[in-house]
Amino acid sequence: MSRKGNCWDNAVAESFFKSLKTELIYGNKLITKEKMELEIFEYIEIWYNKKRRHGTLHYKTIEEFNNQNKIYQNIA
Length: 76
Description:
Pfam families: rve_2 (PF13333). Helices cover 59% and strands 0% of the residues.
C-alpha cells in the first residue's frame, strides 16, 4: 500500500465503518431493509456528523470543524 496521507490510505473510512458497525449494527435485532436504511441515515446525518466528536478533528464535531473552516475562509 502507500504511506500515511496518500490517497491509498483508507484509515479514516475504515474507522468510520468500524464505528458504524459497533455503535449501530451489531446487537441490533433483525429489521427490514427499509428500516435499516433509515437507521443508518439517522446515524450518519444526525449522530455522526452533528454530535459525535472526532479525534482526527481535535475532538470537534464535523459541523464545528466545517464552521471553523468557513470562518477562516471569510478572514482570508
